[in-house]
Inverse folding.
């Protein structure tokens, strides 16, 4: 039933494409009298994808922390776009929502995964070999939803995410701290900029520190100022910030960094996990950048 609802909602949404005329202020403005109804149809399509029966129960359990509907709406995504998700991970948290939604709308979902052969250590090669295999196996369990997924394998030292100007949106969730610590963040931002069409969107979510963090001290958290400077250095314009994924309970001073919190719960021996479960997942910035149209 959920799958049928998704198809019906998406077909209705893409039947009135003029309703999604983009406004760089962040709100969709009606292109004709039917636009308000089309907006509701698009929302219903996304809600149906979030409610999809193919989603893993463990992933669904995190919706209250990850806010999928408001986050994707804030990024301005629409069925029918070409969307690149960077490092989706074996759990396929966002893939389970994005791929069916975009596919049914006639768009293309691209999963950008690390090429194990291009990593610089045996440990990294083994990790990404196993992680990529788990991700593909996960998607293979629901071919009706995921058979349209496109893959691109990326060299982390020289990233490229597709043909220049081929994507409408690039999404990266909680990845930037690793690239910053490894000295790869500038190359990643340039690669995002290159693959996007003029006017394309970079949607970014990242664990948020209260102040700038030196590279050698990054433990999952970095500051908004650091992230914005990196994006602007690549040519992006900051369009809007959101507090959708804020968590004021997160004190950001945990013994094992952000990984002390759920879902990892890497809690030192002898400490009560319940303390960190009560905090919930990390405080996160949610930023929308745009590649200038000209």
């Amino acid at each position: 039933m959920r799958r049928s609802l998704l198809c019906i909602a998406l077909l209705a949404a893409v039947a009135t494409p003029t309703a999604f005329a983009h406004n760089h202020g962040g709100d969709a403005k009606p292109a004709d009298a039917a636009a308000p109804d089309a907006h509701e149809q698009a929302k219903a399509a996304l809600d149906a994808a979030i409610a999809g029966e193919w989603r893993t129960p463990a992933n669904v359990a995190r919706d209250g922390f990850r806010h999928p509907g408001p986050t994707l709406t804030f990024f301005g995504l629409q069925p029918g776009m070409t969307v690149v998700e960077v490092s989706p991970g074996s759990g396929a948290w966002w893939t389970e929502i994005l791929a069916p939604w975009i596919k049914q709308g006639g768009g293309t979902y691209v999963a950008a995964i690390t090429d194990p052969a291009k990593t610089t250590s045996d440990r990294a090669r083994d990790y990404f070999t196993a992680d990529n295999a788990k991700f593909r196996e996960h998607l293979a369990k629901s071919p009706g939803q995921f058979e349209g997924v496109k893959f691109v394998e990326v060299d982390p030292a020289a990233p490229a995410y597709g043909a220049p100007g081929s994507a409408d949106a690039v999404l990266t969730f909680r990845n930037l701290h690793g690239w910053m610590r490894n000295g790869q963040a500038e190359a990643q931002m340039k690669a995002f900029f290159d693959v996007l069409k003029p006017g394309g969107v970079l949607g970014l979510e990242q664990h948020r520190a209260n102040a700038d963090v030196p590279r050698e001290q990054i433990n999952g958290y970095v500051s908004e100022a650091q992230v914005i400077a990196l994006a602007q250095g690549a040519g992006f314009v900051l369009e809007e910030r959101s507090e959708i994924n804020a968590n004021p309970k997160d004190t950001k001073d945990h013994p094992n960094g952000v990984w002390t919190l759920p879902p990892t719960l890497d809690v030192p021996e002898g400490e009560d996990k319940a303390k960190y479960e009560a905090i919930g997942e990390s405080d996160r910035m949610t930023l929308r950048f745009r590649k200038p149209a000209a």
